[in-house]
């Protein structure tokens, strides 16, 4: 055990001397937080204030287009050419041109001239409002009261609740959970490959430089392999914890700054909802703020608040350790069997295929999280680290997690035993092209 401890120490120290490793430990959280900040900023900039001058030749849309927090409509009787002449020096950011033949069917074409590009939300809002006005016009033209149609329509919010064997139900996450689960699985995929390849290259470098011949004169090949795997595992866990802490601090600070107004609106919206439920039909809806354009953002925030981050963090650590140990022991055996990275291609494919399969099952699972494919993908050790992480946000029974983790760690013991058999022979084998048949012989060498 003392010799394995020395190997672990040697692996950790050699990696900590690598400046790239240190830089990436601190740079990666900044990049992750920056990525989220960019998404939030882009979503907000998409709703930048727009002052839109409406040139409506039909005069039918006058005062029928409603502004909101970030769009202001101003109607004008000017000709389009006149308005374009001094448009760039005016305070307006866009001109909405509605041709006089739109009502009679001008191919449904309107134009927006801009000096400040309208985002997707602005374009969608304009298009929806124009279509709504036209829709009501067509109904009236056919002697149909639009009020009857509107009253017949009602949007419905669907809440999904899962019932357990005791008859107890609890609300489940759906849309956002699918995306979060897929990203968790993808992150696990990246971490296992990254640290597994670190073990593979470390073994190959020592074999190529023949340093290993000196090392194995003092320790057994199995001890060397185990020490190397455990050393990088400890390093990876420490790096993961440091990156997790820095990322949490940065994202918390950024969300507190960038989402301050949104969170305030969400609290006001939830208070309004409680008053409406309490007062029922007698609620005075006119006094409440209209927040229709923020409902999607509120939905995402509420789903984020419902995620069990503690359970996800613990499972991520368990599956990362198990998945890394399982695959890195196999990669260490492959690294010991070849003299160059190009010779390893035929052996890498069978190792990478299950990982790739896990990634695709996680993607497929977004449409059917309770299917047989998702269940078996999260139980079988070759794919379970990735698929189970993608399943967690949907709620997974504890016995399934326990079974999956147990099988993963038992498989690690078996894979280590098998890899050790190959490693002890391959690590001192030079100048020979190894085949699958040769590897199988090494397993049974005494």
List the keywords:
single chain; alpha/beta; 4-stranded mixed β-sheet; two-stranded antiparallel sheet
Account of the protein in words:
Helix 8 packs antiparallel against helix 11 (309-337), helix 8 packs across helix 15 and helix 11 runs antiparallel to helix 14. This protein has helices at residues 2-16, 19-45, 80-85, 120-141, 146-152, 175-209, 211-215, 221-258, 260-279, 295-306, 309-337, 345-364, 372-379, 384-391, 398-426, 436-443, and strands at residues 50-56, 71-76, 94-98, 111-114, 160-163, 169-172. By secondary structure, the protein is of the alpha/beta class. It contains 16 helices and 6 strands.
Quick gist of this model?
With 446 residues, the chain is α/β, with parallel strands linked by helices. It has helices spanning 2-16, 19-45, 80-85, 120-141, 146-152, 175-209, 211-215, 221-258, 260-279, 295-306, 309-337, 345-364, 372-379, 384-391, 398-426, 436-443; strands spanning 50-56, 71-76, 94-98, 111-114, 160-163, 169-172.
Global outline: elongated
Structural class by helix and strand composition: alpha/beta
Q: Name the helicity range.
A: 55-70%
- Unreliable parts: none
Chain oligomer state = single chain
Q: How many helical elements?
A: 16
Question: Which sheet architecture does the biggest sheet show?
Answer: 4 strands, mixed
Listing every helix as H and every strand as E from the N terminus to the C terminus, the arrangement reads HHEEHEEHHEEHHHHHHHHHHH
Q: Would you spell out the secondary-structure blueprint of this structure?
A:
Elements: H1 2-16, H2 19-45, E1 50-56, E2 71-76, H3 80-85, E3 94-98, E4 111-114, H4 120-141, H5 146-152, E5 160-163, E6 169-172, H6 175-209, H7 211-215, H8 221-258, H9 260-279, H10 295-306, H11 309-337, H12 345-364, H13 372-379, H14 384-391, H15 398-426, H16 436-443
Parallel strand pairs: 1-2, 1-3
Antiparallel strand pairs: 3-4, 5-6
């Amino acid at each position: 055990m003392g010799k394995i401890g020395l190997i672990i120490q040697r692996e950790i120290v050699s990696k900590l001397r690598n400046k790239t490793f240190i830089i990436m430990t601190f740079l990666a959280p900044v990049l992750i937080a920056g990525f989220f900040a960019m998404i939030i900023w882009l979503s907000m900039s998409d709703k930048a204030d727009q002052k839109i001058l409406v040139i409506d030749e039909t005069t039918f849309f006058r005062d029928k287009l409603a502004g909101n927090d970030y769009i202001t409509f101003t109607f004008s009787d000017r000709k389009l050419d006149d308005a374009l002449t001094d448009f760039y020096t005016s305070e307006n950011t866009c001109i909405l041109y509605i041709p006089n033949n739109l009502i009679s069917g001008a191919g449904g074409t309107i134009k927006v001239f801009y000096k400040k590009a309208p985002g997707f939300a602005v374009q969608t809002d304009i298009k929806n409002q124009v279509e709504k006005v036209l829709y009501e016009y067509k109904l009236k033209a056919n002697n149909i009261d639009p009020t009857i149609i509107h009253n017949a329509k009602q949007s419905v919010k669907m809440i999904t609740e899962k019932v357990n064997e005791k008859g107890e139900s609890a609300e489940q996450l759906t849309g956002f959970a699918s995306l979060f689960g897929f990203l968790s699985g993808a992150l696990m995929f990246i971490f296992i490959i990254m640290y597994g390849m670190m073990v593979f290259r470390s073994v190959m470098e020592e074999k190529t430089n023949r340093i290993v011949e000196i090392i194995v004169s003092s320790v057994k090949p199995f001890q060397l392999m185990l020490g190397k795997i455990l050393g990088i595992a400890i390093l990876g866990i420490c790096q993961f914890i440091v990156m997790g802490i820095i990322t949490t601090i940065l994202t918390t600070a950024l969300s507190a700054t960038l989402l301050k107004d949104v969170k305030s609106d969400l609290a006001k919206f939830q208070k309004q909802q409680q008053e409406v439920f309490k007062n029922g039909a007698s609620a005075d809806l006119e006094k409440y703020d209209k927040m229709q354009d923020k409902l999607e953002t509120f939905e995402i925030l509420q789903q984020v608040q419902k995620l069990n981050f503690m359970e996800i963090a613990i499972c991520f650590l368990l599956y990362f350790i198990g998945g890394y140990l399982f695959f890195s022991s196999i990669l260490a055996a492959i690294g010991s069997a070849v003299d160059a990275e190009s010779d390893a291609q035929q052996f890498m494919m069978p190792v990478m295929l299950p990982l790739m399969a896990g990634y695709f099952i996680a993607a497929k699972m977004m449409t059917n999280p309770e299917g047989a494919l998702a269940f078996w993908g999260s139980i079988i050790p070759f794919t379970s680290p990735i698929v189970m992480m993608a399943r967690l946000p949907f709620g997974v029974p504890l016995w399934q997690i326990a079974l999956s983790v147990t099988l993963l760690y038992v498989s690690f013991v078996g894979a280590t035993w098998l890899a050790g058999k190959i490693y002890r022979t391959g690590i001192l084998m030079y100048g020979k092209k190894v085949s699958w048949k040769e590897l199988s012989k090494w397993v049974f060498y005494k």
